[in-house]
Amino acid sequence: MNEAVGRLVERLDGRMPSIALVLGSGLGGLAGEVEDAVRIPYAELPGFPASGVTGHAGEIVAGNLAGRPVLLLAGRAHYYEHGNAAAMRPALETLAGIGVTKLILTNAAGSVDPDMPPGSVMLITDHINFSGSNPLFGEPTDRRFVGLTEAYDAGLRAAFEKAAQATGTKLHKGVYMWFSGPSFETPAEIRMARVMGATAVGMSTVPEVILARFLGLRVAAASVITNLAAGMTGAELSHQETKDMAPIGGARLATVLKHMFSEGFD
């Protein structure tokens, strides 16, 4: 990890962003809007993951977004790719090591709420870890007992809501439920998720939230809704549907994020 920190500091050439943004499906175009950008392939940074998911570039983009210094992670590793919930730990440890204090996570998700259709944006207020795994398995210190009562930072959530209101973007709020994937959920699992209080379901983000809180980072997260979950429409789900619909909600979320960055937040 120290080697990755050194290499990243060298490549950043004096840039000192305190905010990092993980780009999920539908947000990849945001990397092209970064000004004065430096691009660093994950392959150049020891411990960084090689994403095997189409639409995930696998590089860091650092520069200014809407006038604010930021570091974007274009691509993430998913638990379902390797069975390792801690796959993003080296990357997040490196971010913390260079002085990042705030992490904004984005993802594509399925809606459990018929009033939150594809193309919607949902601010995550809490999560349910239904995967049976945890990225802190094997952590030898008592730091592994991370409190998650305030996993999603109230101040960052307020900045999200203010930016959504200012841009006229409808911002849903709800609970994200993490399933391991890669297969989609069954209709019975979705009925269960609804009973348990989930608003959306997906296959990422929760491990990163746990790791970020373990590292002392403030966290906010938002989902781009790409489909109604299994059994809600009678149609079969597909990853192609995710790729087709993600840019629609992604454009709305990008608008909110850029306004949020332009206005500034603590």
Automatic annotation (TrEMBL):
GO cellular component, one term: cytoplasm
Enzyme class: transferase
Residues annotated to bind phosphate: S25, H56, R76, A77, H78, A108, S204
GO biological process: nucleoside metabolic process
GO molecular function annotations of the record: purine-nucleoside phosphorylase activity
EC number: 2.4.2.1
InterPro entries, per database record: Nucleoside_phosphorylase_d, Nucleoside_phosphorylase_sf, PUNP, Purine_phosphorylase
Pathway: Purine metabolism; purine nucleoside salvage
PANTHER family from the UniProt entry: METHYLTHIOADENOSINE/PURINE NUCLEOSIDE PHOSPHORYLASE, PURINE NUCLEOSIDE PHOSPHORYLASE-RELATED
Subunit text: Homotrimer.
Family named by the database record: Belongs to the PNP/MTAP phosphorylase family.
Record protein name field: Purine nucleoside phosphorylase
